[in-house]
Amino acid sequence: MKLELGYFNVKDVVFGDTTRYENGVLTVSKKELSELVLEDQRIKDVDFDVARPGEEVRIIPVKDVIEPRVKVTGGTIFPGFLGKPTTVGEGRTHVLKGMAVVTCGRIVGFQEGIIDMSGPGAEYTPFSKLVNLVVVANPVEGLSQHEHEEALRIAGLKVAAYVAGCVKEKEPEEIKVYETKPLPQALKEYPDLPKVAYVYQLQSQGLLHDTYVYGVDAKKIIPTLIYPTELMDGAIVSGNCVSACDKNPTYVHQNNPVVEELYRRHGKDINFVGIIITNENVTLADKERSSDYTAKLAEYLGLDGVIITEEGFGNPDTDLIMNCRKIEEKGIKTVLITDEYAGRDGASQSLADADPKADAVVTAGNANEVIVLPPMKKVIGLVDTAAVIAGGSQKALREDGSIEIELQAITGATSEVGFTRLSAVTL
Amino acid sequence: MGKFRVVHYINQFFAGLGGEEKADLPPQDKEGPVGPGTAFNAAFAGEAEIVGTVICGDSYFNEHQEEAKADILERIKKYNPDLVVAGPAFNAGRYGMACGGVCKAVKETLNIPAVTGMFKENPGVEVYKKDVYIVETAGSAAGMREAVPKMAKLALKLAKGEALGTPSEEGYIPRGIRKNVFVEEYGAKRAVDMLVKKLKGEPYTTEYPMPDFDRVPPAPAVKDLSKATVALVTSGGIVPKGNPDKIEASSASRFGKYDLEGVDYLTPEKFQTAHGGYDPTYANQDPNRVLPVDVMRELEREGVIGKLHRYYYATVGNGTSVASAKKFAQEIAKELIADGVQAVILTST
């Protein structure tokens, strides 16, 4: 499967009468976008704002971050949500690079995040480096949390696809090609290189901790195979209300750095043959089934090594360790990426599970570490939610407008797909 | 600035007062350096000076810990030091425990830095490494020449308030404190680099060495449940409406104890969840789903259990560190035992 990504490097986003892209500037029409979002009768009101790198702006509470992409040929972006769930990952896709759509608005319940565009918080979130088109949408009264979450999720996807639509017919500034071949061909091409796949754990603890694959709730999948390029076309979409620091926003599914890195080494040190997606359900029976199945697929593909990534913490630590142990028992080498909950003082045990076979682990840092975010000139969203989001506390919001909070509350701060340069050492 | 004033703690053997037969010697002190103190003074190279030495027999210290510690602290205080150095204890177990205990007490009560040195298998390491900087030494006093300059260097750095490097750079035994650092490469690249090395059989360093996981064997079954008092304890965050103790939605710093007297089942008017790690809809609709008071009352009426304990305990498990959870559990268990509870049902989410 071969996908061409055509990039348009967005330098700025401004508001105007129509939605268009010229010379690195994306102009968006608030009126068009409002009409689009308000098509959904579950949404009462919506407004839009732009936050640029370096500005004294705080976005809170952040639900999802999405990269605007449009399919030029070969299906629809976000299949299963914005179009039929037909296979994507082939043909041409155009990308508005350097920007994102960020969904915000009244909190759904808990576990939403903060993006600071400057100051110490900006160092931790990878999304402070993007020009962010923020969608601030609020639901109608009496809407259940589940519908509220779904309405916001779909609004974000629609806005991202809509703004990308204006570059569908344009000539991209840069083109990059990604290709993964069917297994027999891939094996024939590099017979001497170790066969490597990516075991991608998708958050599926349920109760608003969900991920979707072609529109299907990942709780209900059996571990399966997917081409890396399918991710790039939005085959995997994040649900909201997953702890902000180590949730994989939709942007991260579209731009998974493990996939990028495995492609970079493909044909040199490794033969990157594809991705096994699996879930992180809460019952032991589900965990046993999924980890058995994942190990079986790894064996079936004749793999030599895998990278396993986690999403979330605590309960999914057991999925990470089970996958590691069972895959290692098949004689396949593993490297894990996780983050840590070692307490505010860093003195506690970091994971809820452990196994001596997990001898190659990359950490994205201790999410309990506390940071003070200084007051910002402008807040997009609702700052009082700092008291209730995960990582916050009653004392989080201080009188001078600063926020004392755990890294946990910062969107993407301890990305478990290795999207940041944060790590941790033992002192 | 003048020289840092140092007090050195050593045992009877290194003070030249005798071996095992003198191990029950109570604390005493002398002005200036004694035994290995001279080598430390040389290593301080004029930046610090041992002004007093406190000596205690190893058996005495370990058999009279509280008294000995108080006495030793008084003697240390008398010299008005900026810094305390203890040992090195090498692989001497009781001496290691004494050095660790003295350093911890100095840090906590006198609020000045303290450094000791031990062999990595000294039992004092396991007990004190979290609280005290312990320089890694050889297993016997033959390693004195090597240990002293390392300990002196670290002690001076601490006295000056300089930032410390990693344990391997500074020569101390890792304290087990996890600290965030920004590194050169992003995580995904580090992971793929590590996998390529692992596949080639080349050496690599894991960023998170697996801990010795604390697996707790289940307690034996209660012999006669019909006479037992059973308590409910939950990490699912069920609290009286309004969350009176303000238990945090994540990373809880406390637990609550709540009365179930006269409560036949939990109603959404009076109870809710404080947990921020799961969708609260179903727990708030019917809090018995997380804290099964309704079923426990039925079992009580049917005589399956003796009775439900009057109080239940609740905290939030979401992102709460294992150390905090352990502390809560110890406090809760103490109260439950004192209240004559024989069994506990733990519910999580």
UniProtKB/TrEMBL annotation, chain A:
EC number of the protein: 1.21.4.2
Record's keyword annotation contains Oxidoreductase: yes
Pfam families, per database record: Gly_reductase
Top-level enzyme category: oxidoreductase
Modified residues (Pyruvic acid (Cys)): C241
Keywords per UniProt: Oxidoreductase, Pyruvate, Schiff base
Catalytic residues (positions): C241 (schiff-base intermediate with substrate)
Top-rank taxon: Bacteria
Gene Ontology molecular function: glycine reductase activity
Protein name in the entry: Glycine reductase complex component B subunits alpha and beta
Organism for this UniProt entry: Fervidicola ferrireducens
Gene for this chain: grdE
From TrEMBL, chain B:
EC nos: 1.21.4.2
Keyword Oxidoreductase attributed: yes
GO MF: glycine reductase activity
Keyword line: Oxidoreductase, Selenocysteine
InterPro entries (UniProt xref): Various_sel_PB (IPR010187)
Database matches in NCBIfam families: various_sel_PB
Name recorded for this polypeptide: Glycine reductase complex component B subunit gamma
Organism: Fervidicola ferrireducens
Organism classification: Bacteria, Bacillati, Bacillota, Clostridia, Thermosediminibacterales
